[in-house]
Amino acid sequence: MAQASRQVKLTREGFERLQKTLEQEQGRLAEATRILQEQMETSSDTEDTGLEDAKREKMNIEARIDELEDTLARATVIEDHENEGRVELGAIVVLGNETTKQDMKVLVVSAPEATVTGGSLPRVSEDSPVGKELMGRKKGDAFVVNLDSGKQMKYKVKSIEY
């Protein structure tokens, strides 16, 4: 797997949220293991759906834990920004939607961080259509994003902070 050794850049907040999520999943695994143990002890039918559901839930939690541990093992916390004044991971950007004339404040993050719930700001992944167009931009830059639906959205970078 070529991606397994790829470094993952995370904000401090994102790193801490991933660690907290890992702890929660480990707690869920302990509970799922206990439930599975009870199901196995009380199951008289080999085709007990409760037992199968418990096994499946435990496997899903284990897979999520493996994914979180892998991401955290490859993580580097973004501390400094090489291109001050340009959008990079960890930037808080105010985007003006040129169509709706509304502003939105977002945090630009890596894909693994974008999937973690919580946080004070909406997150835009560097791999998303908006994120790809946003990376490297500076204040005042305008850009167009082509959406999957065929629509186009026009944005302007109003501010960048770290």
In short:
This protein is an alpha/beta fold and 162 residues long. Helices cover 41% and strands 23% of the residues.
What would the keywords be for this entry?
two-stranded parallel ribbon, alpha/beta, 4 helices, 162 residues, 5-stranded mixed sheet, single chain, elongated
Query: Which structural class should the secondary elements be placed in?
Result: alpha/beta
The first-to-last residue Cα distance is 33 Å
**What characterizes the major β-sheet?**
5 strands, mixed
Integer average pLDDT: 87
- Element order: H for helix, E for strand: EHHEEEHEHEE
Unreliable spans are: none
With strands numbered from the N-terminus, the spatial order across the biggest sheet is: 5-4-3-7-6
Radius of gyration: 21 Å
Instruction: Report the total helices.
Output: 4
Strand content: 15-25%
Total number of beta strands: 7
Shape: elongated
Percentage of helical residues?
A: 40-55%
Commentary on this structure:
- The chain is an alpha/beta fold and 162 residues long.
- Helix content is 41%, strand content 23%.
- The chain has four helices and seven strands.
- The chain has helices at residues 12-42, 49-73, 111-114, 129-134; strands at residues 8-10, 75-77, 92-97, 102-109, 123-125, 142-146, 152-161.
- The protein has a five-stranded mixed β-sheet with strand order 5-4-3-7-6.
- The longest helix has 31 residues, at 12-42.
- It starts with 7 loop residues before the first strand and ends with a strand.
- 20% of the residues are buried.
